[in-house]
From TrEMBL:
It comes from Fodinicola feengrottensis. Residues 1-20 are annotated as: Disordered. PANTHER family: MANNOSYL-D-GLYCERATE TRANSPORT/METABOLISM SYSTEM REPRESSOR MNGR-RELATED, MANNOSYL-D-GLYCERATE TRANSPORT_METABOLISM SYSTEM REPRESSOR MNGR-RELATED. CDD domains: WHTH_GntR (cd07377). Residues 26-92 form the HTH gntR-type domain. PROSITE patterns: HTH_GNTR. Coiled coil: none annotated. The lineage of its organism: Bacteria, Bacillati, Actinomycetota, Actinomycetes, Mycobacteriales. This is GntR family transcriptional regulator. SUPFAM superfamilies: Chorismate lyase-like, Winged helix' DNA-binding domain. SMART domains: HTH_GNTR, UTRA.
Length: 256
């Protein structure tokens, strides 16, 4: 498999014809991105890449063209920018399965260290859409738990979970937001999640979300909306999770 394709997925094939149109003409930044990407084959994750001045001299391109190429490689998850460290080779994307289990369990199974950092815990009034998802009346009280999802000390996602206050009246006192919420459902309330539905789309982060995740607002994100039900078919939670597109990918099994 070619190693110089700048936006080749970490787990997929390169674009057809290596992304080059049939007429063979590509933008200058695309060609430069392929050249820089080829250099990364000799580097390890975390290694610094040459400076802009060095790359401009080596590749013989304009600085503006180089910057566009580097931006594309950052968006593709090949490069990572950090204040104080500059631009480095990015770690491989974290690939987690789409299954009905907690983030903590999925990350632990992948051999990584999961962490959650609480951002907000509050009681709000449900609007008509949220009320419908939770099977409650419009205006009923809902608990909102917002947490930052961290893998190997790096923020990769921002998760908001909404549950009915009537069903979980003491969850703000019972639940340690640095641990698994699914485990709390079982141990404190005897509730097990049995079915769920998830919708995934691509979005851009809001300025607040980008600040919490420490990313550029232009970075593509994966937005997941998940609704889950218990053994009796009653709705338990609605989750809105925003995942960094440069650090996170999903996998699922398909059966006919």
């Amino acid at each position: 498999m070619p190693s110089d394709i700048p936006w080749r997925g970490r787990t997929g094939l390169p674009p057809v014809n290596n992304g080059v149109p049939e007429h063979g003409r590509v933008p200058k930044y695309f060609a430069v991105a392929r050249q820089v990407s080829a250099m990364l084959a000799d580097l390890r994750p975390g290694d610094p890449v040459p400076t802009e001045r060095e790359l401009v001299e080596q590749l013989g391109c304009a600085r503006e063209t180089l910057r566009r190429a580097l931006d594309e490689l950052v968006l593709a998850g090949r490069l990572h920018r950090t204040r104080g460290r500059g631009t480095t080779v990015a770690e491989p994307k974290l690939i987690l399965p789409l299954v009905l289990r907690s983030y903590t369990e999925s990350l632990a199974d992948a051999g990584m260290s999961p962490q959650r950092r609480p951002v907000r815990g509050e009681v709000i009034a449900a609007g008509p859409v949220l009320a419908g998802k939770l099977g409650i009346a419009n205006g009923d009280k809902v608990v909102h738990l917002e947490r930052l999802l961290i893998a190997e000390n790096e923020p990769i996602g921002l998760e908001s979970t909404y549950v009915s206050l009537a069903r979980f009246p003491t969850i703000l006192e019972d639940f340690d937001p640095t641990t698994s919420l699914y485990r709390t459902y079982v141990t404190a309330y005897g509730i097990r999640l049995t079915t769920g539905q998830e919708i995934i789309e691509t979005v851009l982060a809001s300025p607040r979300e980008a600040q919490l995740l420490g990313t550029n607002p232009a970075l593509p994100m994966l937005l997941m909306h998940r609704d889950t039900w218990d053994e009796a078919g009653e709705p338990v939670e609605h989750v809105r999770a925003l995942w960094r597109g440069d650090r996170y990918a999903v996998t699922t099994a398909l059966r006919g």
